[in-house]
Write a structure and sequence with these properties.
alpha+beta; five-stranded mixed beta barrel; OB fold (Dihydrolipoamide Acetyltransferase, E2P); about 130 residues; elongated
Length: about 130
């Protein structure tokens, strides 16, 4: 009796696994929704600022007073007070602890004015971008 129960259990488990393998859903992320939430590249003009909150991060204050946390900002542009033009896109699929506006994925940076730019005064630790 136990052998028959064990065989039936194995058959039921194999059938369940087979049903999962036949599923057309390859991942929990819906690709159509992921594509629609991505925004096109846009030009943002403003000043890069360094904020010390949560270990420090670089942000962009635009000329129209919008705030963005910068992601993938190249090292050469990590200067507090640097006025730039950034090509990038807003990523609404990532949540940060910076509490400083939306996340801006940086594609390219063009320097407009570096006369007031300086490295942030943060001490011995290495500065990093999100």
């Amino acid at each position: 009796m136990r052998t028959l129960s064990a065989v039936l259990l194995i058959i039921a488990m194999a059938g369940g696994l087979s049903a999962c393998a036949d599923s057309k859903e390859s991942s929990p992320v819906n690709k159509e929704n992921a594509m629609s939430s991505a925004q096109a590249t846009t030009v943002f003009t403003g000043t890069i600022v360094y904020k010390q909150f949560e270990g420090g991060f670089f942000a962009l204050l635009t000329n129209d007073n919008q705030r963005y946390t910068l992601r993938h900002l190249p090292t050469a542009y990590r200067l507090d007070g640097l006025v730039v033009e950034i090509n990038g896109s807003v990523n609404k699929d990532i949540i940060t602890t910076t509490q400083f506006g939306e996340l801006l994925e940086v594609d390219t940076v063009k320097i407009l004015d570096d006369s007031h730019a300086s490295p942030p005064k943060t001490g011995p630790r290495k500065l990093k971008s999100l």
